Amino acid sequence: MTDAIPLASDKPSGAKPYWVGALLGGSVLSAISAGGSLVLEKKNPTVKAAARDFILGAILFLFLLQLLPDSTTKLIGYITSFVAVPAVTSLPSVASLVESIPGQTQDIEVKVGVPRF
Length: 117
What we know:
The protein is an all-alpha fold.
């Protein structure tokens, strides 16, 4: 029996670390903006501009994740197959929160319509 190191791609298919894509998108857009600032304007980029571009790149990637879910999850899977990504604990699900409330064993009733104040 071989002692193989588990890769990030050995995770279940539902556990994709989307923050890796946001990091990648932010880094790429920040690097492009800094390079353009150096080449075109002949001045060093400020930390404020780099942070702004990083945040915009991360948001852009997460927006693309909504528009092209198959392509972006394949990209994230490809990136995480090379790098061991640490598991990040996620927030508890709504079902586990409802189950933790004492005396709340029935389904939550959703009322639709005009509110009656």
